[in-house]
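Regression report. Comparing outputs from two consecutive submissions.

Submission 1:
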Amino acid sequence: MKKLMILGSMILSFGFAHSQTIQSSNYGTTGYIKTDGTIQNKSYATVGHIKSDGTIQNSSYATIGYIKSDGTIQNSSYSTVGYVKKDGTVQNSSYSTIGYIKDDGTVQNSSYSTIGYAKGVKKEWAAVTFFFFKF
């Protein structure tokens, strides 16, 4: 019984350590976001980082932006570039809707056309990856 519990714990730990796949609208893998915020391209090369405090960095750890606790997305100069609402609506700095991040990870543009998938990824992280910063 003890061995079974240890095995179960190992499987759960391994599952949580996996990265979440970022996909295009035709389900092609375009990259990954690891649970620690590391952003990788489809070849697993690190292209950026989202730190636990909301700092967004490129692969060289230079700060390129910030995610605020209220969903505001800022560039490295602290200028607001957009917003991610709790319902997944993504807006630019002028409050115009530019897309949506659905609860199931579907990413849509402002016309509700699916542009990709980010299942299991925080809405703010998906918005940063699809709409605000090009990694």
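Submission 2:
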Amino acid sequence: MIGEKRAKEIDRKARHQREMLLGVSSTAPINVQVRFRLYCLLWELKQKYYENDTPLPYVTRRSYEEDLERVLYWERRIITGGSDEERARKAVKEAKEYLSIVAEARIRDAKKNRVF
């Protein structure tokens, strides 16, 4: 339950940041673009892992790993020493945390079937 509360908090912050960065163009510094893309990615994750504001009961490992790779791709694009580096790293940290809350905790392990 605490994780869900934190996920909602990150989602609210991401929505606010997306609105602030809405006018970002392709000529903006790369770290600003990374922030914007990560906050857009959080919206995509919410659409993927929630249905009618209810979390899905399980997530496939492949789906989780694909989304984690997308986050790591944007993390690799951050320019060290560039403008907005700290904010971009914070956005990556929040994206990883959000993904962990909404997907990693719900990965279905076929080796551990429930028996009733």
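Expected: both submissions complete independently.
Actual: both completed, but the second showed a warning that disappeared on reload.
Relevant detail on submission 2: Residues 30-49 form the longest helix (20 residues).
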